[in-house]
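hiii so um. not sure if this is the right channel but i have a protein structure encoded as tokens and i wanna go backwards to a sequence. like what aa goes where. can anyone help
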């Protein structure tokens, strides 16, 4: 996969070690094709870890991608070196005049915080509203999915009594939807959230296509009819050890977390975890890039228009 990112980005060495095709800018220019412009708004505290996870999933496609990283504001980070942010991340003001083929908004550890109490809530709304006129398809992940539903449908924040943590079985609900092409009838995906995504609530209060659900975790995947907004309530990008690291962190903070479900062998945290969701995670991102972005986006991004988009696959 020709994914084009800066040579100095920490993810570059990681992905090359995994035999993922990371393309230099000079090599990309010789191909004579227009790469898809993908913007990642990274809201997670550990930005280097998160950007690597998403870049890994974006690599599973024959399309050439030009990736840019966006930060929500210029506040100092406790978990990411300022030099890294200044070198590889852009401020919104520097890109707001441009159009992009795709936008990914990551999750954030804000499950118990009301939207209005999030320090950057107003700025996030500005970016999400900007995307309506400047982005072909936006992928909202976990907490961002809840934020997107608030913006687009004015849905209230619904919170579970206990944190949902583990790897859950899901069933597809829309067999022939392009985002689900190649999916097994049932598949595994990790969740780590307090947000409540009830299938009944979303069906009653939105016009979304509900694409995949879990008897325990609720809606996992949903999309607008025109595929310009796609909501993923779990974390297909997670590495094998991410849920484990969160569990150990919560233990260290005295939170007495539940053991992540269906994650450790024999549900024993002394045993190593196993990643059982990789194949469907890669397939989900490949389908989003193909059917929601590549087949929908105008060749010339300067001529971005609502008329480019259809509600049929």
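sure thing!! here u go:
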């Amino acid at each position: 996969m020709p994914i084009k990112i800066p040579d100095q980005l920490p993810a570059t060495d990681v992905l090359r070690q995994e035999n993922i095709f990371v393309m230099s800018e000079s090599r990309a220019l010789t191909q004579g094709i227009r790469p898809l412009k993908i913007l990642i708004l990274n809201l997670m505290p550990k930005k280097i870890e998160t950007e690597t996870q998403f870049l890994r999933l974006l690599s599973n496609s024959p399309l050439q991608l030009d990736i840019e990283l966006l930060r929500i504001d210029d506040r100092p980070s406790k978990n990411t070196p300022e030099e890294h942010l200044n070198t590889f991340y852009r401020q919104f003001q520097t890109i707001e005049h441009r159009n992009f083929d795709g936008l990914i908004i990551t999750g954030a550890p804000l499950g118990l915080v009301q939207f209005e109490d999030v320090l950057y809530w107003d700025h996030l709304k500005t970016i999400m509203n900007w995307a309506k006129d400047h982005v072909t398809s936006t992928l909202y992940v976990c907490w961002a999915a809840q934020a997107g539903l608030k913006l687009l449908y004015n849905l209230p924040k619904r919170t579970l009594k206990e944190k949902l943590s583990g790897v859950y079985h899901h069933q597809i609900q829309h067999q022939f939807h392009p985002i689900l092409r190649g999916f097994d009838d049932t598949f595994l995906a990790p969740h780590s959230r307090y947000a409540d995504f009830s299938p009944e609530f979303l069906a009653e209060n939105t016009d979304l296509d509900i694409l995949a659900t879990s008897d325990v975790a609720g809606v996992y995947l949903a999309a607008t009819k025109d595929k310009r907004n796609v909501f993923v309530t779990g974390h297909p990008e997670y590495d094998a050890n991410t849920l484990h690291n969160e569990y150990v962190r919560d233990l260290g903070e005295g939170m007495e977390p539940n053991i992540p479900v269906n994650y450790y062998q024999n549900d024993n945290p002394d045993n190593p975890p196993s990643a059982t969701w990789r194949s469907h995670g890669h397939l989900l991102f490949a389908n989003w890039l193909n059917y929601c972005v590549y087949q929908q986006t105008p060749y010339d991004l300067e001529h971005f228009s609502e008329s480019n988009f259809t509600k049929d696959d």
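oh and The first strand starts at residue 3 and ends at 4.
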